[in-house]
Amino acid sequence: MKLTGAFAASFLTLCWAAASHAETIKVGVVLPYSGPNSDLGNQVDKAFDLYVKLHAKDLGDNKIELVKRDEGPASGANARTVVTELITNDKVKLIAGVVFSPSAIAAAPLATQTKTPMLIANAGTAWVTTLSPYIVRFSFSMWDPAYPMGTYAATKMGCKTAATGFTDYPPGQDSTLAFKTAFEKAGGKIIDEVRFGPPGPVPDFTPFFQRVKDEHPDCFYVFVPSGSHAGGVMKAYGDIGMRQAGVRLIGPMDLIPDYQFAHMSDAAIGLIVTSSYSDDLDTPGNQEFVKAWHEAYGPDSYPDFMSAAGMDTMAGVFHVINTLHGDLDDGARVVETLKGWKHEGYRGEIQIDPETRDVIQPERVEEVIKKSDGKLGVKILETYPQVKDECKVLKVGRCGS
Amino acid sequence: MPPVANTIVSILFDGLAWAMFLFIISVGLSVTMGLMGVVNLAHGAFAMAGGYLVITATASWGVPFLPSLLIAFVAVGLVSVLLERSLYSQLYGASELDQVLLTIGLTFMVIAVYTYFYGPQPQSIHVPSYLLGELHLGDRSFPTYRVFLIAVGAALVAALWYGFEGTKIGAMIRAAVDNRRMAQSVGINVDRLFTITFAVGSGLAALGGGLAIQLLGLTPSFAVIYLVFFLLVVAVGGSGSIWGTLAGALVLGISDTAGKYLFADAGSFVIYAVAVLILLVRPAGLYGRE
């Protein structure tokens, strides 16, 4: 009897699996495809496509269809519209992507109302994950790189004073707050906080940097959106001779995205960043990944930390599809499936924190060096293996809710 | 040097460099607007095109940096003549809305084309080593590239001043800006005059675009994101005037830099506050005619 029951059960499972055969799962992809920051969307978009290309066979009979929509400007003004369209018109089961925190903030209520999981591949403002129980973040919290940097600067680099500079929007404010919290906790003193203005056009950074140079802090912590702003920062830093004046530039990995690295001058040498990923990283499979990327997109295209997070996001999507046999109708179940999920990605081992739905990942303090082949590269100075979002651990501000 | 003097020198120097960048790109916009009343929102696209041409020339064709700036000036100037003859000439006398729609549409098309060919990622340029580093003057040092930018701007101001005030064609342009119908009735071919100024203005924009890469980097959206600064310079300076453009660029460039240096918290907004104040007092701009 027992045996028959087991047979019956497995027969039913088989039938059920057969019934759910050949599902085409629609995933809504929200990334900036136009405007000044479309290069950021490009880095994630290429990662999504590459993951699907490399792993499509892992889905068995199920198929995945990416429905791509333009996230638009960094202000998030477009996000609500496109997420609504994706959910109501295109009937997607998941939203993946979202580069800008304001977009995530604007679209979070939609995720809650429609019970549609939103898998964030970049937007890093710490408290974004608290806005909806349907948000799962694969990328990082701004605190992940910034907090260890604060500790490292005060204890290992011997910086007694620091100035901070940031692009004035939520992730910039967040990153700076994280650095400040850790830096002051470790006994350092912040002597100035400079706002670089909104994230749209790249400003002339020189006057800001000149001001900081004249104030003479030991360290200058800078957050700008990865991409064209980062190039501007390095130019200003090199142009006005800040290093010679004894001010050390530090920041999160956004300052040296790999695809900008090739274009940076030697002014970047000596820069200290905390980063979850770089192309040179010795993690399992990373060199094959970089190779596959070059094969797909040409030798001048480089994956960066956003691409690595994009690969992990898509790995999460595939994990959900396979675990739930293609039945993604129940959004809450999708989120449950992701809680506690562990994955060996190109950043190293990551995990989705079951309590906060935010990623736990390794962070490395790196110094920019000139490699033996004359190109710029990074040297790892320190590794923090399992970094959790300290903002939520310490319950700072909106992270406490 | 005492700290206060040091601060003032920093602000004036960086402000001047920024002002020269604004001037080089805006002057063509101002003159064409004053001459024909055409609001050319595609002006930033010409600057962007110039920037990409400089990058292609230096990186792919092996042309040195300075000659490639010249190539950008000439090539974009010539292409702009084609556009002027085929598209813009339809617009003379058309409503401002028509002009804005056509030129902003053109801008978006140009952005899309460049994104297709070059990709959306920021481009950078390797300028010759003699333009990098710092120049030491007394106990101060100045970034060489900015000194170069100021020198180029000053040379252009001198050249334009001579062209405007010292040549016959300059006199004809001034006459046409002052009173177009009168100029036409004494036999000045204003259409041809406009084609020439349009070409020179677009060429200068391209030159400015090429010079800006080292300062700001370059993406296809360069065509729109800095447009508001160029329009501000024209509005503050008063359209149709070289001196107005220079004054507008200097006022906005230096106040922007001073704002960023002195009031870092609100720095990015100072430029707009200054523009609003000036336009409240002089609605037609510093050198504009009511």
Fold and architecture overview:
The complex is a heterodimer of chains A (401) and B (290). Chain A has 401 residues and is an alpha/beta fold. Helices cover 39% and strands 21% of the residues of chain A. Chain A contains 13 helices and 14 strands. Chain A has helices spanning 2-19, 38-55, 79-88, 101-114, 143-155, 170-185, 206-215, 228-239, 258-261, 286-297, 305-323, 331-338, 390-393; strands spanning 24-31, 63-70, 94-97, 118-120, 135-137, 161-166, 189-195, 219-223, 248-252, 272-275, 342-345, 348-352, 359-370, 376-387. In chain A, strands 6, 7, 8, 9, 10, 11, 12, 13 and 14 form a nine-stranded mixed beta sheet that branches. Chain A has a five-stranded parallel beta sheet with strand order 2-1-3-4-5, with helices on both faces. In chain A, helix 2 (38-55) packs across helix 11 and helix 3 (79-88) runs parallel beside helix 4 (101-114). The longest helix of chain A has 19 residues, at 305-323. Chain A is globular. Chain A starts with a helix and ends in an 8-residue tail after the last helix. Chain B has 290 residues and is mainly alpha-helical. Chain B has helices at residues 3-36, 43-59, 65-86, 96-118, 144-166, 168-178, 180-185, 190-216, 222-225, 227-237, 242-262, 267-281; strands at 134-137, 140-143. In chain B, a hairpin with a 2-residue loop joins strand 1 and strand 2. The termini of chain B are far apart. Chain B is globular, with a radius of gyration of 19 Å. Chain B has a two-stranded antiparallel sheet with strand order 1-2. Chain B has a single domain (3-281), classed as ABC transporter involved in vitamin B12 uptake, BtuC. The longest helix of chain B has 34 residues, at 3-36. At the A-B interface, helix 2, strand 7, helix 7 and helix 8 of A face helix 1, helix 8, helix 11 and helix 12 of B.
